[in-house]
Amino acid sequence: MRSCFVLILLLVVTSMAVGQPNPDTLWTRTYGGSGDDRAVSIQQTTDGGYVVAGRTQSFGAGGDDYFVVKTDAHGDTLWTRTFGGLGDDRATSILQTTDGGYVVAGWTASFGAGNGDLYVVKTDVEGDTLWTRTYGGIRQDEAWSVQQTTDDGYVIAGLTWSFGAGYYGFYVVKINAQGDTLWTRTFGGNSGDYAYSIQQTTDGGYGVAGWTESFGAGLSDFYVVKTDEQGDTLWTQTYGGSNTDEAWSIRQTSDSGYVIAGQTRFLVHGPTDCYVVKTDGQGDTLWTRTYGGSNMDVAQSIQQTSDGGYVISGYTDSFGAGNDDSYVVKTGSQGDTLWTRTYGGIGDDWAGSIQQTSDGGYVIAGYTNSFGAGGRDFYVVKTGPDELAASQLHILQPSSFSLSAYPNPFNPSTQIAYSLPRAGIVSLTVSNLLGQTVQIAYSLPRAGIVSLTVSNLLGQTVAVVVDEIQTAGTHTISFDGS
Predict the structure, then answer these.
(1) How far apart are CA 131 and CA 124, in angstroms?
(2) How far apart, in Å, are the Cα atoms of 287 and each of 258, 260, 405, 442?
(3) Whose C-alpha in 217, 237, 268, 300 is 20 to 30 A from the C-alpha of 358?
(4) Higher pLDDT, 468 or 106
(5) Tens-place pLDDT, residues 36-45
């Protein structure tokens, strides 16, 4: 069984953008105790709730422990779990897996071979441990990103001081579904190179992003390594100027290119701005954008949204109510700002992870010392639907057939939109069927007979989900692949 869907789209999108206000806050939640608790990763789960991961000093066995919070759709806690030992253990990435459970990655000073090792915990749907593994050598090794792969295994990216050419190098570990190592790779030069984000790409390989002090134009530069499915290098690229540029997040985009987000510093000791680079499939730059004000502004997470644009989260010292505030920027497909929002109070508030949710809104996770029970607490913000993004999907009086899906490939869900100038048959090809729900949205300029079928890669019909006369307007249905 494969771990993600890939849609082969038969048409291309055409859309009309209409300006709308940015989304309203539906709720905020804090989680934690009297100590220091910091969230860095969030994902919407198949039950409509959320899972959040980071580190805690309020609970657990040691100084820092992995801290995982599972909530319902309203942010109310269903369960919490800690993982770790007597040393420091810090979770940096979590995702729901195809079996309904979770995989959590970070690093540990409690277990393993060295001062720090990559530490991966696999749980069932209730958060109970199925297995744990450590990876690394006798020095410091850290995991910052984990993804489930199409063979039901996992790929982990981070940094290593135990292996490689420099004092730190990009470190990628490929494991099977039981956590056994299949291969490892290091990338970088004679100085420091730090990987913070990885994604499997549509060709079965991987895109890895972070920053490098070994190559490039400045003190540090965005550094992207594209590999094949065995982790062998296909190409590398650096992006940045003469000072420091640091990348935290990479995503493959619907045009098979990449978008990378982080921070850039124009002056050696000056403030930073959020920095986004959009590339084609070979890593060649299509455009770059900066966002921020006169102080420190950092992008930590980026995702392509259902309208073909992007949403970025991080923190800002230029805007908002406190010292730092959680900072969200929504852009169009060319990186132009559509709206910005800050969240937080008079203390420090920081957003490390953002995801567009199935209702068209966003969920943002980080930490706060403006609110909550302790010095810092997990801080989650849920917004309502993004009316601007929705308006870009709504097509008025379409003159041609169009179809789009963002993101693609996807796990566990994607937004699929299409328009019909007249009644007709639309066929979507799905590479695997895991029983997960796919939201399908479409619009009609007038009433007509609509037939929507789903077929597999062999051309066999899997389901007929619509076959009826429907009125003009926008329609949304659910397809259950089970």
Answers:
(1) 10
(2) 11, 11, 22, 30
(3) 300
(4) 106
(5) 999 999 999 9
With a cut of 70, say whether residue 442 has pLDDT above it: no
Q: Which two tokens stand for residue 134?
A: 């450590």
Q: Which residue has the tokens 């071979």?
A: 113
Q: Choose the weakest-confidence range: 47-56, 206-215, 418-427.
A: 418-427
How many residues would you count in the chain?
Answer: 482
Q: What are phi and psi of 390, to 5 degrees?
A: -65, -40
Q: Which of 440, 439, 449, 438 is nearest to 472 (CA)?
A: 449
pLDDT beyond 60 at 254: yes
Burial classification of residue 466, based on how many CB atoms lie within 10 Å of its CB (0-12 exposed, 13-18 middle, 19 or more buried): middle
Classify 283 in phi/psi space as left (phi over 0), alpha (psi -120 to 50) or beta: left
What residues contact 460, with CB distance under 8 A and at least 6 apart?
A: none
Could you please report the per-residue DSSP string of 234-302?
A: EEEEEE--SSBEEEEEEEE-TTS-EEEEEEEESSTTS-EEEEEEEE-TTS-EEEEEEE--SS-EEEEEE
Kindly report the number of other CB atoms within 10 A of residue 473's CB atom.
12
Alpha-carbon torsion angle 170, 145, 348, 265, nearest 10: 40
301 vs 311: CA distance, rounded Å: 8
pTM over 0.85: no
Compute the average pLDDT of residues 208-220. 97
Cα-based distances in Å from 70 to 37, 79, 226, 362, 366: 15, 5, 33, 17, 15
- Rounded Cα gap, residues 472 and 295, in angstroms: 49
Contacts of 360 (CB under 8 A, 6+ apart): 306, 385, 386, 389, 390, 415
In this predicted model, what pLDDT tens digit does every residue of 182-198 receive, in sequence order?
999 999 999 999 999 99
